[in-house]
Amino acid sequence: MSITIRAAGRADITHIAQWNVAMAWETEHKALDPAVLERGVTAVFDEPRRGFYLVADRAGEAVGCLLVTYEWSDWRAGDFWWIQSVYVVESARREGVFRRLYDDAQQRAKQAGAVGMRLYVETENERAQRTYAGLGMERCHYFMYEAEF
């Protein structure tokens, strides 16, 4: 079945927010507040400097998405594009949906002059790690730390 990739629009906000709830639960057993998520997704559309979403459609139905955000690298004088909030509905998994999303994001990044693409993945999510390696991504030598407020 044909998979097409498009830039998300405001009509996709509800799906994207719902998919983020599902992704957080499936990957981390973390329950996210749907109202906060909807505000967070909407904020990306309100302020394009924050990034953008891509949506995968299969036979006219939205079946997955990812978010691209930007990180300035003074070392390289350019932006890294971060892939975040990846989700593919269960019925469309293992059909190349993420590969199509990734390829589209990579093409856009190159056209925009980005210096590279990055993402983070749960340490236990070996299936996703194999997928990313299969796309030519390499595990980097950095650990990620955070302080939430």
Automatic annotation (TrEMBL):
Which one of the record's GO molecular function terms can you name? acyltransferase activity, transferring groups other than amino-acyl groups
| Claim: Mitochondrion is one of the keywords in the record | no
- In terms of superkingdom, the source organism counts as Bacteria
Sequence ranges assigned to domain N-acetyltransferase in this UniProt record: 3-149
What keywords were assigned to this record? Answer: Acyltransferase, Transferase
Pfam families per the UniProt record, alphabetical: Acetyltransf_1
Q: Does the keyword Acyltransferase apply?
A: yes
Q: Where are the transmembrane segments?
A: none
Q: Which PANTHER family match?
A: AMINOALKYLPHOSPHONATE N-ACETYLTRANSFERASE-RELATED (PTHR43877:SF2), AMINOALKYLPHOSPHONATE N-ACETYLTRANSFERASE-RELATED-RELATED (PTHR43877)
Q: What is this protein called in UniProt?
A: GNAT family N-acetyltransferase
